[in-house]
Amino acid sequence: MVTLIVVVVIVGFIFLSLIGIYNSLVRLRNQVKNAWSQIDVQLKRRHDLIPNLIETAKGYMKHEAGTLKSITEARSKAMGAGSVKEKSAAESALSGAMSQFYVVVENYPDLKANTNFLALQEELSSTENKIAFSRQNYNDQVLFFNNKIQMFPSNIIAGMFNFVLETFFELENAAEKEVPKVDFS
Predict the structure, then answer these.
(1) 167 lies in a domain?
(2) Rg for the chain (alpha carbons), in Å?
(3) Residue 23 falls inside a structural domain
(4) Long-range CB contacts (< 8 A, 24+ apart) of 73-79?
(5) What is the mean pLDDT of the chain?
(6) Which helix (H) or strand (E) holds 114?
(7) Among residues 99, 76, 69, 72, which one has the least CA distance to residue 171?
(8) 121 is in which domain, residue-wise?
(9) Domain count, the chain
């Protein structure tokens, strides 16, 4: 009788442990999805601001149609990207196009002084900071989730219930990884 009770307690403990591991995997997977949706919200905001910035600049930058077109094309690709890897690559291309745009803007002092342009530029800069924070949060959640999937004993449960590794949101553009150079001379 005592042996039966011990076996039932052990089986019950194992069963409850398995339920706990499964529930923690589900929770982590949902946190990854939530973190991705936060990036998506900020990217949509960015995508919505860019056309307004371009329209403001068009009147001043009549000879820079190629630069404005490249931003529009990069934005369209970014909006149409599906997977995390595709979105990461497309957003890096969009960031590169925006960097080129800001370099060209330096040649137009009237545009740089335009209050609408300055307000849009500030809002876009704020959005870029939010994207960076959201990307960091997403990557942290992916790290927790992927660690849980790969570590024993949760890797057994993850395999049984087809939990798959998530992809990090990484910078594709090498220029974005470089530290900016400051020169006051």
Answers:
(1) yes
(2) 24
(3) no
(4) 73/97, 75/47, 75/50, 75/51, 78/43, 78/47, 79/47
(5) 87
(6) none
(7) 99
(8) 30-177
(9) 1
Region for 165 from its dihedrals, namely left if φ exceeds 0, alpha if ψ lies in -120 to 50, beta otherwise: beta
Residue 106, helix vs strand vs coil:
coil
**Percent of the chain scored above 90 by pLDDT?**
53
Residue 176: pLDDT above 80? no
Tell me, what's the pLDDT at 173?
Answer: 56
Instruction: Give dist(CA 86, CA 94) in Å, integer.
Output: 12
CA atoms within 13 A of residue 167's CA, in its CB half-sphere: 11
Maximum pairwise Cα distance, the chain = 91
- CATH number of the domain enclosing 71: 1.20.1440.20
- What is the rounded distance in angstroms from the CA atom of residue 142 to the CA atom of residue 86? 17
Q: Are 165 and 141 in contact (CB under 8 A)?
A: no
